[in-house]
């Protein structure tokens, strides 16, 4: 035992090439997975806080009923460590020097905004600044357009009800410059404490109280759990995640990070697996030697377990030492991108998957072959029996694969993701098995000669087992990398498609039926065409198949759409970005029925033929569901939960019209004239919101690209590890070929060809499997439309072929520069 | 067969001529002289044995004679060509056509079967029907039943016989063998010696071998002794003394 221990000293270990490869793989594995997990956590927090600024808080509680919420609700929130703020929103007439205008007032408390910043301009020609609080008491900030409409200048006063408030700034952008239809008229922002003295709000006024909350996610969740039972239907708790406008984009980005992390786990596992298996196989002779020296099987097992554990610890510690600075660098990069400091957030839990991955793949792949050797008589170890095929390792490898995919599941928490990747992998292995069979039966006939092509083919055939496992690993690595590239591309394409440069950025709302035509011609005269105009009727869904809807729907479903008035419309043709998933769209002349948005239909459990009753003003309309359709909520166009056919249930209901259009910056002055000519029509300017969404998309894109680069680097390392695992064999073969009279050029060409074939084929295989995995992922995770992406992924096989060929050439270097004799002596 | 460089042999010339050959390797601190002032001439069809203690420089000398390395000093002329004047590719071509080598440590490719190992030089030289020829050779060294086994599955002696079959495969005009019977039992060793001598006799192959086997050495036409890098021909010395 003492002799054996000596044989296994750590210092000796390090001198062994295989051990160094295992340790390097471990370090890279731990470093990549930990970096990505840490960074994903950081990014998520940063993005959420970025997104939170859309609410000016982490959560909002909206009370549409015109009543404030009970004081103890706020006391409770404070007791739970939450910050709160308050806003009052209402419409009123304001008076300037000689003019008056209907405005939408937002009165804010001192705390507003809890998240994000307000952009104001203090002088008419001055710079714009970002500030963390609203106007003080006695002051107002107003929309620049209102300034012109009222002929005011900064410093003059604005009459709001009984008060004269001094205009101290122009409101350029508010963080929660929300997408709310109640905020129609030009904005005036004032202090909440000034509201009572204006006397504007009286019994029965239409007022909305909005409460802001910010704090830790757990505190917020706990608070909501406490609050939920007490909420009235008109009180709505809203988080970033529930919003329509862009939470979907955010969700996708998060999923991408999740996917990236999972792929990193897989890649890392592959790297460690390849290296440690290689190591285990190289230990056969040592194990045999130990046995002849009289070490018992159990002793050998313990020895190797101890050794692997030691490396596991060493690799993990070193990996973390690499990961933390890397993470720090990425975070620095992020904060530069965002142009604001990002608080470093290092979640220790993010390190768990990294360590688990390393340990599982180390033991799962390195130990089984050694354990099997333990039970073999020494002689048999020294000389492997004829007919040994490596098949006995298959069960072990299967177990290890299951373990690693289990890890991915643990990491991502998405069975769909695991299944998609596993499916892609199985497809890959299937094709590979087929290829193996073809290789064996097809290349057997090829006989080498002085010809590099034939020598390369013969090489592939002769090393078929090594070739197959290399192709398997390359293909898997490339599949993972290609999957990520594909998902990134489709993610970006989707975003681009949602928010093209000419995405509608202005809404016209409240257009009376008789001014529809003059509005359209007003803008077309100025060279801006309106998008489709839709009629809009406000109504509530009150009954489902004759039962009150609140009873018909299960209690635990919280459906915002039921708590407020819905925008109902009628239209003859289906909007281009909507899609019928059930039933059929209205046929021309059809005047009964209603088409329901798919997600709402799902939550209400609606089916074709269900009868819906809407209350519109004092009237009731009942129609049955004739179709269910999907809607692109983030398209920045008017979207509707409920659509009726022309001449259907909404006929004769009081309707106004709504439309959206793209107005470039230089067209903005036209808005003033428009407001004068059509004072009752509301203009909703969302160009700032769109700009911010585009900015966030850009940030996310950058982050995604950073992670992609990291993963591609890891993939390259894996491939290098695999190739260099056979380095010795290849060099020896090269040396021997030279002693047998092979010319250098022949050697170079045939080696490069062999690698080109290997890399090209593995690339094709990996890309095909990636397409399959992405197809599955897009179904399950990204709800995008699948299309082939050959132009994106075809470079991958080419690159992998070229890179491997160059790598092969590089490996051959020492074989070419040294005399064959010396080489053989060295490789002895 | 594509005859690229003209190595056509002038039959009157000696097969090997070594003139004042020395070989040194530089180590970390100093240089180690392995061979010193070696002079040697071997004619076509001769068989030569080199004996000497372990570490005396036998393998190094053999490698230099076969053109696997270039000497630090002096010249090696193999079949009329001065090895150190040739480019690496020309040396390779010379090896492919004229030289066979049996390594002390066999140097078989572990990924290939016995048959494939023997076919390798035939394929490199572009010789037709390599498989049949390789099969014949393996049968001749008694391995007809083990064609598809890999080196790991063969015993040491069996591996050595595969290495010999490979060296014979391209019908070299000179065969270098580094302890060809070192791992063989008496009977097999005898068979291998017979094989080597037969080849030397039937095909006129020049035979240069390192051996500890006195019997085998005795069957060679000439014997050399090497001691600390200095080569002597005891028989010749004795003749001169006589
Ligand atoms: N490249 C080299 N670097 C360092 N030492 C070398 C090198 N080549 C040969 N030697 C040394 O030169 C000496 C002669 O080596 P060589 O292999 O020729 O011996 P040998 O006579 O064949 O011995 P054996 O009978 O044990 O095979 C040895 O001491 C060896 O260690
Ligand atoms: Mg030797």
From TrEMBL, chain A:
Q: Can the keyword Membrane be found in this entry's annotation?
A: yes
Residue ranges of the TM segments? 21-40, 256-275, 308-330, 350-370, 393-412, 418-440, 471-491, 706-727, 755-776, 788-807
Protein name, please?
A: FtsX-like permease family protein
Please tell me whether the keyword Ribosomal protein is annotated for this protein.
no
The principal localisation class reads: membrane
Q: Which UniProt keywords apply?
A: Cell membrane, Membrane, Transmembrane, Transmembrane helix
For this protein, the record's Pfam families field holds: FtsX
Q: Which InterPro entries match?
A: ABC3_permease_C, Membrane_comp_ABC_pdt
Which compartment or compartments is the protein found in?
Cell membrane
Show where the ABC3 transporter permease C-terminal domain sits.
262-377, 707-806
**Record's Gene Ontology CC terms?**
plasma membrane
Which membrane topology describes this protein? Answer: Multi-pass membrane protein
């Amino acid at each position: 035992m003492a002799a054996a221990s000596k044989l296994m000293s750590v210092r000796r270990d390090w001198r062994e090439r295989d051990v160094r490869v295992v340790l390097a793989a471990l370090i890279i594995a731990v470093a990549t997975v930990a970096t990505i997990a840490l960074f994903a956590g950081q990014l998520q927090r940063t993005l959420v806080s970025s997104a939170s600024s859309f609410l000016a808080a982490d959560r909002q509680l909206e009370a549409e009923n015109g009543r404030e919420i009970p004081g103890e609700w706020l006391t409770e929130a404070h007791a739970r460590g939450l910050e709160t703020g308050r806003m009052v929103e209402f419409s009123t007439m304001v008076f300037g020097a000689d003019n008056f205008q209907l405005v939408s007032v937002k009165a804010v408390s001192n705390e507003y905004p809890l998240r994000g910043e307000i952009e104001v301009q203090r002088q008419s020609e001055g710079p714009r600044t970002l500030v963390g609080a609203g106007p003080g008491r006695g002051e107002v900030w107003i929309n620049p357009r209102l300034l012109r409409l009222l002929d005011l200048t900064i410093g003059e006063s604005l009459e709001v009800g009984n008060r004269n408030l001094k205009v101290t700034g122009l409101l350029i952008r508010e963080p929660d410059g929300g997408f709310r239809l109640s905020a129609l008229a030009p904005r005036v922002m004032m202090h909440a404490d000034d509201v009572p003295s204006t006397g504007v709000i009286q019994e029965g006024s239409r007022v909305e109280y909005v409460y802001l909350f910010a704090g830790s996610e757990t505190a917020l969740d706990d608070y909501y759990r406490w609050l939920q039972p007490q909420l009235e239907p008109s009180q709505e708790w809203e988080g970033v995640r529930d919003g329509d406008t862009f939470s979907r984009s955010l969700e996708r980005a998060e999923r991408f990070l999740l996917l990236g992390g999972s792929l990193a786990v897989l890649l890392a596992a592959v790297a460690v697996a390849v290296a440690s298996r290689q190591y285990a196989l190289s230990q056969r002779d040592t194990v045999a030697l130990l046995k002849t020296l009289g070490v018992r099987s159990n002793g050998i097992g313990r020895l190797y377990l101890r050794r692997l554990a030691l490396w596991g610890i060493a690799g993990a510690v070193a990996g973390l030492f690499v990961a933390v600075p890397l993470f720090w660098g990425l975070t620095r990069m992020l904060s530069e991108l965002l142009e604001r400091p990002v608080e470093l957030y290092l979640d220790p839990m993010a390190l768990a998957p990294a360590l688990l991955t390393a340990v599982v793949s180390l033991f799962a792949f390195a130990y089984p072959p050694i354990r099997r050797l333990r039970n073999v008589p020494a002689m048999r170890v020294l000389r492997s029996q004829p007919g040994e095929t490596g098949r006995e390792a298959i069960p072990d490898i299967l177990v290890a694969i299951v373990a690693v995919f289990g890890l991915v599941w643990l990491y991502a928490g998405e069975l769909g993701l695991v299944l998609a990747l596993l499916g892609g992998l199985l497809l890959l292995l299937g094709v590979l098995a087929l290829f193996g069979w073809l290789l064996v039966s097809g290349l057997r006939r090829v006989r080498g000669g002085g010809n590099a092509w034939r020598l390369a083919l013969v090489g592939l055939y002769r090393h078929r087992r090594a070739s197959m496992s290399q192709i398997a690993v390359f293909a898997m690595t490339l599949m993972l990398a290609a999957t990520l590239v594909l998902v990134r591309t489709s993610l970006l394409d989707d975003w681009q498609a949602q928010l093209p440069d000419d995405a509608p950025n202005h809404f016209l709302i409240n257009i009376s039926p008789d001014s529809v035509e003059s509005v359209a011609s007003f803008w077309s005269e100025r060279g801006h065409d309106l998008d489709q105009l839709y009629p809009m009727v406000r109504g509530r869904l009150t009954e489902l198949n004759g039962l009150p809807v609140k009873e018909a729907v299960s209690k635990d479903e919280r459906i915002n759409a039921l708590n407020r008035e819905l925008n109902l419309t009628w239209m003859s043709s289906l909007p281009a970005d909507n899609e019928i998933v059930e039933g059929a769209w209205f046929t021309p002349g059809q005047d009964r029925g209603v088409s329901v948005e798919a997600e709402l239909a799902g939550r209400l459990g609606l089916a074709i033929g269900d009868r819906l009753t809407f209350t519109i003003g004092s009237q009731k309309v009942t129609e049955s569901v004739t179709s269910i359709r999907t809607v692109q909520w983030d398209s920045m166009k008017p979207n509707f939960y409920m659509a009726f056919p022309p001449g259907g249930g909404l006929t004769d209901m009081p309707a106004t019209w709504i439309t959206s259009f793209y107005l470039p910056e230089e067209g903005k002055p036209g808005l003033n004239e428009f407001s004068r000519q059509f004072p009752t029509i509301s203009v909703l300017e969302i160009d700032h919101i769109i700009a911010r969404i585009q900015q966030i998309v850009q940030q996310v894109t950058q982050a995604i690209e950073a992670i992609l680069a990291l993963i591609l680097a890891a993939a390259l390392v894996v491939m290098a590890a695999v190739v260099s695992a056979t380095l010795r064999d290849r060099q020896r073969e090269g040396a021997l070929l030279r002693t047998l009279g092979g010319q250098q050029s022949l050697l170079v060409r045939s080696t490069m060809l062999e690698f080109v074939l290997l890399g090209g084929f593995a690339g094709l295989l990996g890309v095909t499997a990636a397409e399959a995995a992405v197809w599955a992922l897009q179904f399950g995770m990204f709800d995008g439309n699948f299309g082939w992406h050959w132009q994106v992924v075809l470079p991958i096989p080419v690159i992998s072929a070229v890179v491997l060929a160059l790598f092969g050439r590089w490996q051959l270097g020492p074989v070419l520069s040294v005399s064959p004799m010396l080489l053989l002596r060295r490789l002895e | 067969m594509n005859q690229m460089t003209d190595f056509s042999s002038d039959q009157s010339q000696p097969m090997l001529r070594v003139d004042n050959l020395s070989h040194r390797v530089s180590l970390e601190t100093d240089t180690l002289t392995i061979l010193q002032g070696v002079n040697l001439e071997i004619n076509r069809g001769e068989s030569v044995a080199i004996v000497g203690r372990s570490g005396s420089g036998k393998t190094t000398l053999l490698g230099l004679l076969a053109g696997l390395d270039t000497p630090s000093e002096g010249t090696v002329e193999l079949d009329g060509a001065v090895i150190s004047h040739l480019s690496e590719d020309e040396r390779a071509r010379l090896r492919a056509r004229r030289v066979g080598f049996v390594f002390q440590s066999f140097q078989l490719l572990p990924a290939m079967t016995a048959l494939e190992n023997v076919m390798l030089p035939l394929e490199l030289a572009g010789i037709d029907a390599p498989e049949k020829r390789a099969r014949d050779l393996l049968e001749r060294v008694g391995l007809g039943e083990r064609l598809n086994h890999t080196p790991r599955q063969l015993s040491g002696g069996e591996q050595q016989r595969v290495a010999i079959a490979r060296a014979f495969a391209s019908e070299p005009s000179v065969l270098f063998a580094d302890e060809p019977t070192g791992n063989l039992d008496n009977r097999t060793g005898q068979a291998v010696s017979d094989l080597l001598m037969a080849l030397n006799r039937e095909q006129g192959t020049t035979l240069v071998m390192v051996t500890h086997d006195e019997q085998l050495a005795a069957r060679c036409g000439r014997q050399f002794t090497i001691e600390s890098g200095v080569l002597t021909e005891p028989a010749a010395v004795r003749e001169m003394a006589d």
